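Please, structure for the following, as tokens.
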Amino acid sequence: MVREAKGQVKVDVALDLLWRGLSKDIVTTVPKIVPNLVKKAEIVEGDGGLGSVILFEFGPGAGEVEYQKEKIVELEDSQLRLGLQVMEGGHLAAGFSFYRVTFQLTPSTDKETVVDVTIAFECEREEAASAAFISKSVGSNLAFVRALAKFLQEE
């Protein structure tokens, strides 16, 4: 059974700038924002649009996990919605049979954006989906959005 966990963050970055950094420029921005966690990101299938597969090679801050392949399963420019589903490695190697993160952006003001993060998951091993782990996962994605916003403000 697929379960969900959600979180929300408001950041001081204009909607269009944040959307570009999160969707179109994700391969270049992620290693710059969290180099200790992601040492390299590259598109290994597709053109960066819907259906493309991104390989994230993890750094020492990610622990024993070496990589994760994620497929862009939602890319809605008009709705400002990005969905990434883990296809190999990472969370799947940690006991999940399904793991997808969706980012939904909404303007708050001209210079502020609200980002809703939804994690949908299903587990092979129940211990993989402990409340603490899922809470940490939501928190990590919210922290990533904050770090992206800070990076874009400084750029």
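The longest helix spans residues 131-154. The radius of gyration is 15 Å.
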